[in-house]
């Protein structure tokens, strides 16, 4: 009988593509005033490990990264700035949906600290235990691409959050998929390749902002 591997939250930074495993370089990106993220119509809070995009409007503000081949990715949340609670700026370990209203009082702007996806290797849990069931089948997928799957998880009382996993059923050499499989994670938590939540090492494939893109000024 297959044994499920331990579940880990979100997308976890492992190292740079050059092998530096000390600490990632972080970018500061803004939250829209009173930003209220939703996944599939369900309101969620933002946590470290969530994938983000840069929104099309509003001071380079972010929106939640979404699943699918048309969704570009910018970074992975690593931390949060203090947030305005209506009277003072308060330290935060998450962004609670709808909080942090600042309007045009820009000294109260809210930020997330994000790890840019380009140039970094991340670990992700797989979303099923049927596409691959042996170490050999996981190894055969190295070099292929996958999308991610995102869902709202409301089982945490008072703290709805995003469940983000690697959608291995989409594995293919198609270049429009979001993540590239680089390796099986060497973590001891990969104890059963026939179980759920096998962890893979991935790099970004469908990126919103590449450090090598030629951009207008």
Q: Characteristics of this structure?
A:
single chain, globular, mainly beta, five-stranded antiparallel sheet
Can you describe this structure in just a few lines?
The protein is mainly β. 3% of the residues lie in helices and 35% in strands. It has one helix spanning 135-140, and strands at residues 12-16, 27-31, 38-39, 42-43, 51-54, 62-64, 75-80, 83-84, 89-90, 110-116, 120-125, 145-153, 161-172, 179-184, 199-204.
Number of helices: 1
**Helix content range:** under 10%
Count of the domains: 2
Oligomer: single chain
> Major sheet: order of its strands?
1-11-15-14-12-13
Largest beta-sheet characterization: 6 strands, antiparallel
Helix-strand pattern: EEEEEEEEEEEHEEEE
Shape descriptor:
globular
Kindly report the average pLDDT value: 90
| Helix-strand makeup class | mainly beta
Please report the distance between the alpha carbons of the first and last residues: 58 Å
Number of strands: 15
Strand content: 35-45%
Radius of gyration: 18 Å
Q: Identify low-pLDDT runs.
A: none
Structure commentary:
This protein has 217 residues and is mainly beta. The chain has 2 domains: 12-16 and 120-204, no CATH class; 27-116, no CATH class. It is 3% helix and 35% strand. A 6-stranded antiparallel β-sheet has the order 1-11-15-14-12-13, with no helix packed on it. It has a 5-stranded antiparallel β-sheet with strand order 2-10-7-5-6, with no helix packed on it. Strands 3-4 form a two-stranded antiparallel ribbon. The radius of gyration is 18 Å and the shape is globular. The model has no long low-confidence stretch (mean pLDDT 90).
